[in-house]
Amino acid sequence: MNVSLILIILLVGAFATYIAGDKFASKVALFFGLAALGCSIVVLNHYNLGENISLINQWITKPNVSFALKADGLSLAMLLLTTALTPIIIFSSFGNDYKNAKAFYALILFMAFAMAGTFLAADGLLYYIFWELSLIPIYFIALIWGNGDAEERKKAVVKFFIYTLAGSLFMLVAFVYLYQKAGSFLIEDLYKINLSAAEQLWIFLAFFLAYAIKIPLIPFHTWQAKVYQKAPTVGTMLLSGIMLKMGLYSVIRWQLPLAPLAAKEYMFIFIAIGIAGVIYGSIVALRQKDLKKLLAYSSLAHVGLIAAGTYTLTLDGLSGAVLQMIAHGFVVVGLFFVAEIIFRRYETRVIAEMGGIRAQSPKFTSMFLILVLASVALPSTFNFVGEFTVLYSLSQINIWFAILGGTTIILGAYYMLKMFQYAMLGETNSKLFADVTANEGITLVLIIAVLFFFGLYPKPIVDLITPSLQEILTQINRIN
Amino acid sequence: MNTLIAIIGLGVLCLLFEIFNLRKAIVPVTIIGLLAVLGLTVSEFNSTESYYNNMITVSKFSTAFSSLFIVLTIFLVGLGHNFYENHQNKISDFIAIKVFLLAGAVAMVSFGNLAMFFLGIEVLSISLYILAASDRLNLKSNEAGMKYFLMGSFASGILLFGICLIYGAMGSFDVIEISELSQSAELPIWFPIGIALLTIGMFFKIAAVPFHFWAPDVYEGSPALTTALMSTLAKVVAMATLYKLLSVMNADISEAFKIVVVVISMASMTVGNIMALRQVNVKRMLAFSGISHAGFMLMTLLSLSTSAASLLYYTTAYSLAGIAAFSVILYVCKNRDNEDITNFHGLGKSNPLLAAILTASLLSMAGIPIFAGFFAKLVLFSQTIQDGYIALVIVAVINSIISVGYYFKLILAMYTKEPNEEKTGRPFMIYAVAVVAIALNIIIGLFPSLVLDILG
To answer: Whole-angstrom Cα distance, residue B23 to residue B295?
Structure first.
């Protein structure tokens, strides 16, 4: 039993979904998504029992590349995030009718496959391949099934693709450079190389370009809002829920341990970039009229804080970042789904055109409110645990970072509640708003349940990720 | 040697078929014949022999590249079945010329003597001139043939001049003797000049900047199948020959020469890519894209002793993607008077399979993982960083990003526009060639060792 099984399930699922035809595609995709989730829970059990779940095979002799999948606590946590969100995302789309559904759902599973691979890969090149591979499905999902004017959408999506590809190609150069030093792409071998401070800085910057674009950090975020707005909601969920976590995960797994000197030397700059994203994202979100765009900018603010947490290089910062990644993944999927539910009924994403939904649909309103509160880190939700830990670690570095970073909660509460007020409260809307259907309700309840459960009892995840984060920290703090 | 004889025999057979009026059988028979020749070549793989006073030397390098050329010719002949449908009475000529062209190509990578090299390149070039002008009643095709002929013969003249100077310096045409003599301390100045002229002549053939001006016009004017041949087979042949010329004659080329190669490589990539961004004609766009790929391939000249495997891999990946792309272009642009990008509108809806194949081949050329183009670039970058040319790699990376711009223009046209008219008919050969070529591309992308270890 090893982790490759999950990848195989997802890949086979993608093909099976395509073959199943338009009519059954969504159900087949859901089945394989759930199978992958089940399988990852089984793998997690094996891991907790101390069994070996990794897989290393020689793939290419020259250059020396291995097909190496390794799962420690951190990888498994991210893997679970992927496999848990994929079925939820697929299930959330059940109310929609997509043209050429077989290709659509196949691409979703294929993307889940590539993202899971990114989290598991323990070989630099294999990791890079999965990283790039995940870009192709989201490109087509956003391009073909997106909404709004085709020309504008095309521009946004191509910009996104070229940006991310540009960043990752520099990462590839960094990997090739490291390969010349180590003679192998395996992560253990890469960890062993001794690089001079100048070399580390270049490696760090090459990685930084790739990750800053993907996460996205200021000033590389310009692709984000348009793509989130234009992509179909499923695509936005995949992007914001899982894909941008790839960037944050990679910072912890690859960038910091491979170039610790640069990370320490310029720590303040990188934390400041993250914090700048928090403030900028929050302020821009205040002015948004489009619900999806508002969520996009709020997402920018939250990931800025997570990135700042990782760059503190403390155990609290790293574990807070990982917790917040998972929490943010769930809450953002929930919020985008709420936007989709409103769109299904009102066919609009403009906040001013909504309003007065509460009177017609109290159940929906309360679920929406819980998600809003979770996203502004209300105590007892999962987001509070993550955000608080990150802010605590920032205060250890410099109290001003914590104060400025804390604006994410204050400003977040302001723009989220204002949005909630305009969208949901007020006079009864003249347009009819049917209450949530069973499918929609199940999706939202599941997400809320996860957020509360881990908000009150985060120990399982903390226990899972702490050992591997400690290992990474010793790698970061080794003496060069 | 046996390969060469067999290929020429096959070419003659094609002409005989014409006499016996068996035109319908020509394409299948040629393909079967070429497959047999391929088998013959592969079976000779480990032998190194020389024939006729070192006129021809068979080595691992020559058999590996000959096999690639034969595979490409099989694809091109297969595409010819559909392409020459309306010219049935001339089909034997077209096919025979392609087979003779292959003979020239094989001679070019297995020469042991500069005279043989020149013979090979002339056989190849003259066949290409004919093919470029083969659409006799089309003004553009005539123009292309004429332009190509003028530029090509000019380049041949320069090559010949270079060979003469080398002969003047060394007193021999035999490459082994030349390379032995070139180790000696005192070299007459004619020798490096001769090498430089030979290199310039070959730069013309592979269309590297600044010797690229003929390429876009010739590519656009020639019949589409000929363009496919030029941009895949002919380019790969010229590149392999240049590599062999430089590596057999003077194993360690000077630093100054390397700087020239670096500059030409950078210029080819950049000019090719930037010009390609502006094109609306797909053939012209691929011509410029080919120029930029020539720039990438030139990177192998910086480490002549070790990069044969990377060159083989890059050329294989590039030409397989090119064949797949051109087979889709042939299908889409059949019976159209131009190859503008508008013809591709809505292909994703009207013909999803071919659109997917074209997308895959463009992604391969852009260097996106799992397609062979990615590993080709990776191996090349790795090699070049090892030799210490990081700046060149950075330029190459930036160019890879630029190239995405125009490859995606075509992909966008296929998937976001509405189809303008329905294409009918599903020509078997085009589908077969496209599927097999892209499948081979993905297979060597998943298992790069298959190709890398051949010359590794």
So the answer is: 41
